[in-house]
Write a structure and sequence with these properties.
globular, Jelly Rolls, 25% strand, Immunoglobulin-like, alpha+beta, 414 residues, 5-stranded antiparallel sheet, 3 domains, 21 strands
Length: 414
């Protein structure tokens, strides 16, 4: 085989590994039953807030209850019922098999009265004002129900229990290969998932690049030793590329989401990075995710130092729902999980009980491994003694946050 052909195969493997990573991650989330086990087309509720013991999905939040429905629309539609939510934030993100949010139901879009919606597959002829069409037969519906503190948990659970679904029955699809497996098993699983969820016509150029790999009729045994080496080189490059992210960069100490977040279009590398480090992220119009830049490698902070986030009185974070600052440890492969701490506090925000303002109306949040003192502990976000990452969530951001007129203040060493 000519070197040019081997180079094309390397690029095909690199591109295909990244292109298919969201398929693989969602399939494994379905197999592990995040956030609660349920049959296909049935709803699973997790009645508890996520804490440090949870390791199933990267970058979870500690602000909302999660409910989930893994839909298969190949045999017909699924009816999804939402309860009245009143002033409580509720959203149900409907994601296709490639993690694109093709619809979000709830507070911002369909209102607070609830109702029943029919989710149909790409080949279904159904139509109507409450019909939602998915680009793929596999759909992940992920609900988030706001909890306003420990006193509010039972009321939030009551709303959560009002989410229900009805659809055709399916046997469990079982386990799929994970991103850690070798190239042959990874691409065999990806080929199966792509057959069940054909890419869109606008993915045609990307599919052309992937053609030398033959995913439409994948057969790992057909490749020569030289070709296997080329494929392995492409996969190794993809594993490096996915850890580089692909966001919009840092501004005044914070990264802001790429405009394509949550509905990725042709930004396949970014889509893969989000599947690895922020699976099931919402589009910015629903929630903005910002990460603080620390001075350590991979933008991490050192918990042995004391850090401060200061909001001036005249510069509060502009949201129409709530904001929350979460602290995570970072794994070697680029995922993020909560850390055990003496307060059992994994996030701090505008709903944190006991949060105190300064005399001038400004707000200080103290971050570090050691307590900042009794008078500041109400505003303390505990950190491990080693590296950690900080993420800000802003739900229903106002226009000035969306368009960049408002920027978060930097996290500084105190």
């Amino acid at each position: 085989m000519a070197q040019s052909d081997l180079d094309a195969l390397t690029e095909a493997a690199r591109s295909a590994w990244l292109f298919c990573l969201p398929l693989i991650e969602v399939a494994n989330a379905r197999a592990t039953g995040f956030p609660a086990a349920a049959p296909i087309n049935g709803v699973g509720h997790n009645p508890n807030l996520v804490d440090h013991s949870f390791r199933a999905i990267t970058t979870p939040n500690n602000d909302t209850l999660y409910s989930t429905i893994y839909m298969d629309l190949s045999k017909g539609p699924v009816s999804l019922t939402l309860p009245p939510s009143g002033a409580r934030y509720l959203s149900v993100a409907l994601m296709d098999a490639y993690t694109n949010n093709f619809a979000i139901l709830g507070t911002r879009t369909t209102g607070t009265r609830g109702g029943t919606f029919k989710v149909v597959g790409p080949g279904d002829s159904a139509d109507g004002p409450r019909v939602v069409r998915s680009p793929t037969n596999h759909v992940w519906a992920l609900a988030r129900i706001l909890v306003d503190g420990p006193h509010d948990l039972e009321a939030a659970r009551a709303v959560q229990q009002g989410i229900s679904s009805q659809g055709p029955e399916f046997a469990s699809p079982g386990a799929y290969a994970t991103r850690e497996v070798g190239w042959a098993d990874y691409f065999a699983a990806a080929a199966r998932l792509m057959e069940e969820n054909p890419p869109q016509v606008t993915d045609g150029r990307a599919l052309e690049v992937m053609e030398p790999l033959g995913l439409d009729a994948f057969d790992a045994a057909r490749f020569s030793p030289a070709e296997v080496e080329a494929i392995q080189a492409g996969v190794e490059q993809a594993r490096k590329d996915v850890r580089r992210g692909g966001g919009a960069g840092f501004v005044d100490g914070w990264s802001y989401p790429n405009p394509s977040l949550g509905d990725f279009g042709q930004t396949y590398g970014y889509r893969a990075s989000v599947a690895l480090g922020g699976l099931a992220a919402l589009p910015a119009v629903e929630a903005m995710y910002m990460r603080a830049r620390g001075p350590m490698p991979r933008a991490l902070f050192d918990g042995n130092q004391v850090w401060r986030l200061h909001f001036p009185a005249d510069r509060p974070l502009p949201v129409d729902s709530f904001w929350s600052l979460s602290l995570y440890e970072s794994t070697p492969d680029g995922q993020f999980f909560f850390v055990d701490n003496p307060l059992g506090r994994y996030a701090i925000g505008d709903r944190t009980p006991g949060l105190t303002l300064n005399e001038d109306g400004s707000l200080d949040i103290w971050i570090g491994h050691e307590s900042p003192g009794a008078e500041r502990e109400s505003n303390w976000l505990p950190a491990p003694s080693g590296p950690f990452a900080l993420f800000m969530r802003a739900y229903l951001p106002r226009p000035e946050l969306l368009d960049g007129r408002y920027r978060l203040p930097p996290v500084t060493e105190a």
